Amino acid sequence: MGRSGREDVHVANVKGSRDSSSGVQSLQRAFELLEHLADTGGEASLSELAASSGLPMPTIHRLIRTLVALGYVRQNLNRRYALGARLIRLGENASLQFGTWARPLLSELVDAVGETANLAVLERDEVVYVAQVPSRHSMRMFTEVGRRLLPHGTGVGKAMLAQLPPEEARALLGRTGMPAYTEHTHTEVNPFLTHLADIAEQGYALDESEQELGVRCIAVSVDGAPTPAAVSVSGPEGRLTKEAVSRIAPVVQRIATALSEQLATHDLTA
């Protein structure tokens, strides 16, 4: 091949490399925009996305148009952009796979304490239960996998909220409200934020009949999860007594730590 032919090949290779690099960069930027939308609570204007991402407005326009066309972003009537419905299936499937992967440790937790073990994540301001291993007692707690609840009224939700900066927790509670599930549910923001600070210091959260009367839950957040997550045990107050909490809470903490370590080992952290 002559010199001209070699130069043509070299130019083509450089152009192909640039196209590939540009495609990877666009993909990275598109995911970053989705993350920025999630960080704003799921809705933002183009100027807000430009400010938070640092990307040029023409680039944001191009990426948002593509994401809207694919269904991963939608434009609201107020001309602000929000996360699209097509992300729901991806997120739910990923959460359920996380639950399947964690089941051996949940089984270990049930063997150790004798009560039902749960794993939940925080999705779109709601607690979603993604895995459960029931206890062997005839009277046990059943939380349906896939069930969604507001976080302020659950042990797992409180454990996750306690790990957020107070301003983020306050903003989330402002979006969801704090309806009462029982007469024991926390319904006032400021006292609840103080309660979350106590949970963070204590290292675990308790649900004291706040979601369902007669049920107690011990929950611990899972550090390093790609989305806020928590593991818990739940059971009737008659078995899961206040005296039992001091014995069981360290076991739940140990399992939460083991989950965190496995996430790090398998490079599944955020």
UniProtKB/TrEMBL annotation:
Record Gene3D superfamilies: 3.30.450.40, Winged helix-like DNA-binding domain superfamily/Winged helix DNA-binding domain
Q: Which InterPro entries match?
A: GAF-like_dom_sf, HTH_MetabolicPath_Reg, Tscrpt_reg_IclR_C, Tscrpt_reg_IclR_N, WH-like_DNA-bd_sf, WH_DNA-bd_sf
Basic and acidic residues: bias regions = 1-10
Do you know which SMART domains this protein is assigned to?
HTH_ICLR (SM00346)
Q: Where is the IclR-ED domain?
A: 86-265
What is this protein's record name? Glycerol operon regulatory protein
Keywords recorded for this protein, A-Z: DNA-binding, Glycerol metabolism, Transcription, Transcription regulation
**Transmembrane parts of this sequence:** none
Q: Name one GO molecular function term.
A: DNA-binding transcription factor activity
* PROSITE patterns attached to this UniProt entry: HTH_ICLR, ICLR_ED
Domain HTH iclR-type intervals: 24-85
Q: Where is this region: Disordered?
A: 1-23
Please give the function described in this protein's UniProt entry: May be an activator protein for the gylABX operon.
Q: Which domain of life is it from?
A: Bacteria
Which Gene Ontology BP annotations are present?
glycerol metabolic process; negative regulation of DNA-templated transcription
